[in-house]
TrEMBL record:
The lineage of its organism: Bacteria, Bacillati, Bacillota, Clostridia, Eubacteriales. PANTHER family: GLYCYL-RADICAL ENZYME ACTIVATING ENZYME YJJW-RELATED, PYRUVATE FORMATE-LYASE-ACTIVATING ENZYME. This is Ribonucleoside-triphosphate reductase. It holds the Pfam family Radical_SAM. Its cofactor is [4Fe-4S] cluster. It comes from Dehalobacter restrictus (strain DSM 9455 / PER-K23). It comes from the Bacteria. The keyword Iron-sulfur applies. Residues 11-224 form the Radical SAM core domain.
Amino acid sequence: MLMDIEPFSLVDYPGHIVATVFFGGCNFQCGYCQNPALVDVKEKPSQTSPSAVIEFMKTRKGLLDGVCLTGGEPLLSTDLVPLAREIWELGFKVKLDTNGSSLEKLQEVAPCLDYIAMDIKCTPEKYPELTGCRNSGDKISETVEWIKNSGIPYEFRTTVLPVWHPFEDLTVIRKLLGQETSWVLQQFRQPPQGVLDGKTYEAYPDSWLKEMGEKLNCPVRGLK
């Protein structure tokens, strides 16, 4: 479900000024998710519509470079493909944030994408436990390989927490992605509004995460 639009962002699409379009609903139930309001949206009203987004973007020609389509999981929405196509046909760049679980839908929208950012939650064997989604690790590996060979600029990214990401697991992920593959480590910050499962999660010290980024050849985001 299309939920809302943020009209201006400098951080959601590296190097570009964009509007950010939020989709509600997600097939993953990651406990530390920082957007719990976008996971289960059955009882929540949408604050916008595809037609409203398009009309807004028409007023931003020459002011914005493009849009970031994020969630939740955008690929679950029937609005995604036609909306992405219409935005792209207006001449804007289109970036997609995804958990990588719906390769067929990703392939469908791919002709309209200029950038893909895919979350790597953990090592493949831990995916079912972390996401609550059976066999999700197998699907992720297939999507990773497709993205790497798609010709579309991309990045993989992992929000790192001690409970899910010991250094040994990070080295496994680096090996699976390949040494030269673009992979970003993100620092976890407990948000004031809480996370999906209501728990309080410990983060690694910034110094540790910075050191791991150097060892794994990864940039690190979110350090103080």
